[in-house]
Amino acid sequence: QVQLVESGGGSVQAGGSLRLSCAASGRTSSIYAMGWFRQDSGKEREFVARIRWSGGRTNYVDSVKGRFTISRDNAKNTVSLQMHSLQPEDTAVYYCNLAVTDGTIYWGQGTQVTVSS
């Protein structure tokens, strides 16, 4: 089992910045990748960013490229999402996501990000 604890959400005006963090505990020796998804009310959950645990390869959804940066700290089993130039359309609940090597997926409880215009 893996437990994920997110932090760092909040409210910001358009153009502002926020940093999300997610700490993993439990079965952390088998992490394959960690990432972030988001879901706004009435919409489907969408992929935002992901980082491979070994090698650090990253992937982003096109709408956040150049504005968001995902990073990891392997020693602390944490992943962070630095978000700049936030826009109202970035408003959502952001969920931390962890995949282990056997394909099992774990989710955090979600943290709200609200961007006002």
Describe the structure.
It is a single chain. This protein is mainly β and 117 residues long. The protein has no helices and eleven strands. The strands form two sheets. Strands 2, 4, 5, 6, 9, 10 and 11 form a seven-stranded mixed sheet that branches. Strand 7 and strand 8 form a beta hairpin. It starts with a strand and ends with a strand.
Helix-strand layout with pairing:
Layout: E1 2-7, E2 10-13, E3 18-26, E4 31-39, E5 46-52, E6 58-60, E7 68-73, E8 78-83, E9 92-100, E10 105-107, E11 111-116
Parallel strand pairs: 2-11
Antiparallel strand pairs: 1-3, 3-8, 4-5, 4-9, 5-6, 7-8, 9-10, 9-11
Question: What are the salient characteristics of this protein?
Answer:
about 120 residues, mainly beta, seven-stranded mixed β-sheet, four-stranded antiparallel β-sheet, globular
Multimerization state = single chain
How does the helix and strand content classify structurally?
mainly beta
- Helix/strand order, N-terminal first: EEEEEEEEEEE
What's the total helix number? Answer: 0
Uncertain runs are none
Mean pLDDT: 96
Instruction: Give the % helix.
Output: under 10%
The major sheet is characterized as: 7 strands, mixed
How much of the polypeptide forms β-strand, as a percent range?
A: over 45%
Number of strands: 11
Query: Rg from C-alpha positions?
Result: 13 Å
**Global geometry:** globular
Please report the distance between the alpha carbons of the first and last residues. 40 Å
